[in-house]
Amino acid sequence: MKEKRxxxxxxxAIAFFVIGIIAYMDRSNISVIAKPMMEDLHMNKTHFGLxxxxxxxxxxxxxxxxxxxxxxxxxxxxxSIALVWWSAFTILTGVVKNHGLLYTVRxxxxxxxxxxxxxxxxxxxxxxxxxEKGRASSMLLAGxxxxxxxxxxxxIAIYNAFGWQAVFYIFGVVGFLIxxxxxxIAKDLxxxxxxxxxxxxxxxxxxxxxxxxEKSVAPWNNFLKRFSFYALAAQYFVxxxxxxxxxxxxxxxxxxxxxxxxxDLGFASGAPWLVMFILILTAGTVSDKxxxxxxxxxxARGVIAITGxxxxxxxxxxxxxxxxxxxxVVWLSLCLGGIGISMGMSWAAATDLxxxxxxxxxxxxxxxxxxxxxxxxxxxxxxxxxxxxxNTLMLIxxxxxxxxxxxxxxxxxxxxxxxxxx
Length: 422
What we know:
This protein is an all-alpha fold.
């Protein structure tokens, strides 16, 4: 009788889902307590936006190095170090009061979170089959954007009970506990894990999209000659530009534009991220199904990503045309859901293009994404002070149209790493 295949790889997908929740709760809790934190530290919107931008700067600068290091030393070691690092700087965010030191802390917090996605991309390349990478990639992303769903509720509860500094202390301690758990359970390859039975090991090894498990250096000369390498990064610049803007400023927008009080902010600011979480998982499943049915990777990744961008533009237009809070939140939820679909397909396409070097390709993509994330909080704060929130948000449609065009040049069916290159 044939041995029943174990499903250890999917337990790790769930582990990445939890890590994503922790990471983005650590990142987004600062936006929920923006008002009391700004008042206590005497910051205006531009000052506060700079905190987010410096996080993104540290995060962006370490993306390519993180991809290289994840490929060289393995995702287990890199993610363990990252969890400890960013949890420590989460705690320090609540300790430091000096503006200059606080900017440094948030920059180093960004450095610490940088290895998370490249490590996940390397892990997924070796642990999942070709037809499972859409769902595998979507688990970390879904966790990342489920974090902001529950972050307002938990953050406000901690703030009301203990003050805003305690938010960072408690979140940091949870991060340390997750780091310990990950370092105990994780392995870089399914071949190394005792709980993976022979049936699952054989299935993964026969169907994953890698040429070799040997350590080697990414062929940058080949990458830099391919326009798809740049197109992937360009459209992801827009994805993270948009997401970072909403992550940092959505609670403030709802407070200033629609008069939502801090005590009532939990659902209004959390609902859009819940919709985003659901649509990221749905898109990953649909994408893999399309691929398993024999369709092209452009159909499975590109068409779905473009659809997400179109949904974003339509929903944003209607969100800004209504004064009703409930209608506004519904349309904003579809906005973030649409951009979440596009983001999920970006990561799946990065593993398609990168194969053995998914860490390097995803790090490159995420570096440019986080340059976008660096710019958007500052630009949004600047423009919101001068032309108002509605006009500021309407301008976002321009780069989104550009991202749609870029997807026609991503070409996920044509890997950046050909067999002869290996």
